[in-house]
Amino acid sequence: MTEPHEASRQAYRITADTPVGFRLIGVKKKAAIQLMGSRLWGRFNPNHWDPVYAAQTGLKAPIQTGEMSSAYIAEMCVNYFGADFFRGARFACKYVASTYANEVITTHGVVIAKTPKADGYRFEVEVWAENQDGEKKSVGTVEVDVGTSRPTLALEPFKEVAP
Fold it and tell me: Interior CA angle at 122 toward 121 and 126, to 5°?
């Protein structure tokens, strides 16, 4: 049985029928200082979690690591491409402005190219993350194969070899 959220997620799945110009519905995240200070996201650098230190270095607030915006963009892509996002995809991203603590970041994407490849397509998607004021923080592109045949790995039976 398919759960309701799974059925609605499938309605947004990128397939061979998806046209150029298709817009991805992004994810929305708050740059929570509690996460910014975790060991996974920059605990080694107080600019990412200490307001006093960040102010002493000229920042108006602690800044989120760039990897966090990339993770938000990747989450959006997984929502649309599923497992295909993990098979030979290309993800190129640049951080163009600092994301400050408590900003609300929303990801966006639009299909900009669709190239036939084998029995499927290679989709190119322009992606970006912006804050609540519409200021871009990260920009990039993602390329993912959809509907293409993937060769399976042929395993040879185990054979003992004499020393």
Answer: 130
